[in-house]
C-alpha cells in the first residue's frame, strides 16, 4: 500500500492548503468565525481516508500510471485525482457532522462531535439562550460550509482537465453520489420512525436499501467510479469498478453495523452499543427480528432506540442478538459480499497493481475494528 500511503499524504496537504485559502475568507469577515476554522480542521485531520484511497485506485485501475508522487521526474499531473480525493474527504466530514446531529451523537472518533463542541463553546462563553440549540444550528452551518467547499475543491481539480468529457462524467458521478447519500439518510431516519407500520417481511428489504444508498455507494462504489472517470475509463472499466465497489461497500457497512452494536469503545471512539440507543434499524436488527420468538422480538422492539439504556440493558440486547445467530449471519453476509467483489475484480479490465491493491483494501475495510 506504499502508493496509497503517499496518496493520503498528498490529500492531507491538499486539504490543508485549501482550508488555508477558504478560512482566510472567514478571518477577513470576523474573528468570531474562528471556531469554523478550528473545527473544520479538527474534523479533516486524520481518519482512515478510505474514500480517498478508493478514488485513487479507481484512477490507477484505468490509467495504469503506477506513479511515485515523490519522484522528481513524475510525468503526470496529479491535481485532478488528488483534488477529487480531497473533495470526497470534505464531503465525508460534512456528512458525519450532519449525521451526528441527526443521531444526537455525543462523540466522533473518541472526541466530542461538532454540535457538542459548539454547545460547549456557547456554555463556556455564557451567551444567551440554549447552548444545545446553538450547538445544533452552528454544526448544521459547518456541515453546509464543508459541503459547499467540497464542490469547490472538486471543480478546482476538474477544471484544468483537457478531456472535458471525462471531467463532465466525473462531475455527474459526484452529483449523483450526493443525491443518493441524502436520499439514503432520509430513508434511514424514516425506517427508525416508521418500522412499526411495516410488515416484518419488509424490514430486511428496507435495511438493504438504506445500506446501499446511505453508505455502500458513497463509501466505495462512487469513489472508485469517480477516479476511473477522471482517468477517462471506458464503460466496461467503470462497470467493472462498480461491480467490485457495490458489494464491497455493502460489506463495509455491514461491518459498521456490527461495530455499532459490539465494537470496543476504546477502538471505535463511540460508546458500546451506540446503535442500540439510537434505534438503528440495520440489517443486523432485521436478521435478529427474523430469528427471535415473539416475546424476545417484542422486547428488542421495545428497548431499541431508548437513549437511556443502561449498561445492563445493552449487554442483554447484545447477548440476545448473539444467541439468536444474527451476528453470525451478518458475518457470513460480509464474507459473501467480499467474495462477490473479488470475483468481479478477478477478470476486470484494470491495471495489475490496482487489482492487487484493491484486493488488499477489500480485506482492510471488511475486517476493520473501528
Explain the layout of strands and helices.
Blueprint: H1 2-29, H2 34-43, H3 50-63, H4 79-103, E1 107-108, E2 111-112, H5 114-125, H6 131-158, H7 164-194, H8 203-230, H9 235-262, H10 265-268, H11 274-278, H12 283-291, H13 294-303, H14 311-323, H15 326-346, H16 352-366
Antiparallel strand pairs: 1-2
Helix pairs in contact: 1-2, 1-3, 1-4, 3-4, 3-8, 3-16, 4-6, 4-8, 5-6, 7-8, 8-9, 9-15, 12-15, 15-16
Supply the number of structural domains. 2
> Which architecture of the largest domain would the CATH scheme give at its second level?
Orthogonal Bundle
Radius of gyration: 21 Å
Task: Assign the CATH topology of the largest domain.
Answer: Farnesyl Diphosphate Synthase
**CATH class descriptor name of the largest domain:** Mainly Alpha
Q: What is the count of β-strands?
A: 2
SS strand fraction: under 5%
Amino acid at each position: 500500500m506504499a502508493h496509497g500511503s503517499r496518496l493520503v499524504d498528498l490529500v492531507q496537504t491538499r486539504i490543508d492548503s485549501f482550508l488555508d485559502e477558504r478560512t482566510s475568507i472567514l478571518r477577513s469577515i470576523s474573528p468570531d468565525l474562528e471556531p469554523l476554522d478550528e473545527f473544520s480542521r479538527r474534523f479533516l485531520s486524520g481518519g482512515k481516508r478510505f474514500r480517498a484511497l478508493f478514488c485513487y485506485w479507481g484512477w490507477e485501475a484505468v490509467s495504469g500510471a503506477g506513479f511515485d508522487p515523490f519522484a522528481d521526474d513524475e510525468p503526470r499531473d496529479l491535481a485532478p485525482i488528488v483534488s477529487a480525493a480531497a473533495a470526497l474527504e470534505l464531503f465525508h466530514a460534512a456528512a458525519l457532522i450532519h449525521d451526528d446531529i441527526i443521531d444526537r451523537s455525543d462523540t466522533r472518533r473518541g472526541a466530542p462531535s461538532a454540535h457538542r463542541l459548539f454547545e460547549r463553546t456557547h456554555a463556556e462563553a455564557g451567551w444567551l439562550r440554549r447552548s444545545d440549540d446553538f450547538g445544533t444550528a452552528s454544526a448544521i452551518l459547518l456541515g453546509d460550509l464543508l459541503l459547499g467547499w467540497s464542490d469547490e475543491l472538486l471543480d478546482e481539480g476538474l477544471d484544468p482537465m483537457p478531456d472535458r468529457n471525462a471531467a463532465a462524467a466525473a462531475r455527474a458521478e459526484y452529483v449523483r453520489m450526493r443525491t443518493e447519500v441524502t436520499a439514503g439518510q432520509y430513508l434511514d431516519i424514516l425506517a427508525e420512525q416508521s418500522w412499526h407500520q411495516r410488515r416484518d417481511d419488509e424490514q430486511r428489504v428496507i435495511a438493504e436499501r438504506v445500506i446501499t444508498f446511505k453508505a455502500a455507494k458513497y463509501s466505495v462504489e462512487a469513489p472508485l467510479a469517480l477516479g476511473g472517470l477522471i482517468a477517462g475509463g471506458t464503460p466496461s472499466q467503470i462497470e467493472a469498478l462498480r461491480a467490485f465497489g457495490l458489494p464491497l461497500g455493502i460489506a463495509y457497512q455491514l461491518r459498521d453495523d456490527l461495530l455499532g452494536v459490539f465494537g470496543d469503545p476504546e477502538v471505535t471512539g463511540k460508546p458500546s452499543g451506540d446503535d442500540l440507543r439510537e434505534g438503528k434499524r440495520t440489517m443486523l436488527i432485521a436478521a435478529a427480528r427474523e430469528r427471535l420468538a415473539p416475546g424476545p422480538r417484542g422486547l428488542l422492539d421495545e428497548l431499541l432506540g431508548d437513549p437511556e439504556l443502561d449498561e445492563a440493558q445493552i449487554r442483554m440486547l447484545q447477548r440476545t442478538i448473539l444467541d439468536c445467530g444474527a451476528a453470525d449471519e451478518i458475518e457470513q453476509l460480509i464474507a459473501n459480499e467480499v467474495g462477490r467483489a473479488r470475483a468481479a475484480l478477478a477478470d476486470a479490465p484494470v491495471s495489475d497493481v490496482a487489482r492487487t491493491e484493491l484486493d488488499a483494501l477489500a480485506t482492510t475495510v471488511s475486517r476493520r475494528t473501528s
